Amino acid sequence: MQKLNDRSKGIPLAASATDPRWAALNAVREARQRLGIKDRTIAVLRGLLTFVPLEVWTGNPMVHASNATLQERCDGMDERTLRRHLATLVELGLLIRHQSPNKKRYVVRNEAGAPVLTYGFDLSPLREAVPALIALAEEHNAELVQIRALKAVLRDRLYRLEHDCPDAPEQVIVEYRRLLRRDCSVQSLENAIALLKQRLPEISSAPQQTRILSDSDGQNDRHIQSSNKEHIERRTCETQLPTGTPPSRVELSVADCTKLAPNALEFALTKPETWPELIGLADQLGPCLGISHSVLEKSRVVLGEKGRAIAVLGLTQAYPQIRQPDRYLNALLTKANSGILNLKRMFQSLTSTQRHHRFPAGNHTYVTAIA
């Protein structure tokens, strides 16, 4: 925790998402390499955050849920695995465990209903560590860029070694080729480049002269290859629109959606009555289900705001049976791009009462009190 506190000094908070809870979770996800945590630890943290209402996040975000309830929220995770990942989060300083005398988690209130004693997990350290987590992620990304550049330099030296020094030891070449295939640090790559330069000082840093051919290259066809495939795919996703289900034609009303997807309402403070309210609820539920920001943005382009909200509400209702909502939604978008997706039938299939049971972890008591 001291390491995070030291890095957070003087570091501005980066632009976060609409919901600061999921912005904090994204910060942990981006810094997971430096923190040394796995995806299941992040899944446990996501389960804890689902118990913290948005209005409580800036105050005293405490989680009093039992291990059995946390197991349900974390996709039925084994209790020993759950306790191990909770201990990891406490050790990193992202949580504070307030233990009660009987090892239970609960709240003691006075006659006015104000909390006197609270036992459970305090998530305020996670909230305060967000700037430091963002700094760790940026530092890790910068190091990856530096490693990529050093590997390129080492690859260039080896290429020149093979062409300019045919008598070079084969063992040296194999050793450095093996280093290029491994995950290595900046220091190890710099040492390898310096050692290669010492062993082979005759390697020239000047570019080689290309041999002039006797004929022109007019008969050759050039193949232009782009290494930036990610941006090409992103532009394709942004410009590709569905042909079978236009976003503007949604054959469902707000009342139909709330009636068929009651599990989603358990996470709402008030029952949505309009499309903007329903879309806002879906925007909060999407990251909670583990759907990435890129897939959510792609669904907005392909299905529209209303279509994306309907898909997220349906996945929330069918969550106990769908283990990977992110991949499921991506498959639905593929169907939409092919023109074979019907939003109404898809939503009715996901919310079928014959197939699905009650969502295992909703704010049942809180919603009842509001109603």
Distance between the termini: 41 Å
Estimate percent helicity: 55-70%
Radius of gyration: 27 Å
Mean pLDDT: 77
Q: List SSEs in N-to-C order.
A: HHHHEHHEEEEHHHHHHHHHHHH
Major β-sheet profile? 3 strands, antiparallel
Strand order of the largest sheet: 1-5-2
Strand content: under 5%
Which blocks of ≥5 consecutive residues have pLDDT under 50? 6-17, 203-207, 230-248, 356-371
General form: flat
Count all strands and give the number: 5
Our count of helices gives 18
> Please, how many domains?
3
- Class by SSE composition: mainly alpha
Tell me the layout of helices and strands.
Elements: H1 2-8, H2 20-30, H3 32-35, H4 39-49, E1 62-63, H5 67-73, H6 79-92, E2 96-98, E3 107-109, E4 115-118, E5 120-122, H7 124-128, H8 130-164, H9 170-181, H10 186-199, H11 229-239, H12 254-260, H13 262-265, H14 275-288, H15 293-317, H16 325-338, H17 343-350, H18 364-370
Antiparallel strand pairs: 1-5, 2-5, 3-4
What does it look like?
- The protein folds into three domains: 2-132, Arc Repressor Mutant, subunit A (Orthogonal Bundle), CATH 1.10.10; 140-199, no CATH class; 239-370, no CATH class.
- The protein has 371 residues and is mostly helical.
- The protein starts with a helix and ends with a helix.
- It has helices at 2-8, 20-30, 32-35, 39-49, 67-73, 79-92, 124-128, 130-164, 170-181, 186-199, 229-239, 254-260, 262-265, 275-288, 293-317, 325-338, 343-350, 364-370, and strands at 62-63, 96-98, 107-109, 115-118, 120-122.
- The longest helix is centred in the middle third of the chain and has 35 residues, at 130-164.
- Mean pLDDT is 77; it is low at 6-17, 203-207, 230-248 and 356-371.
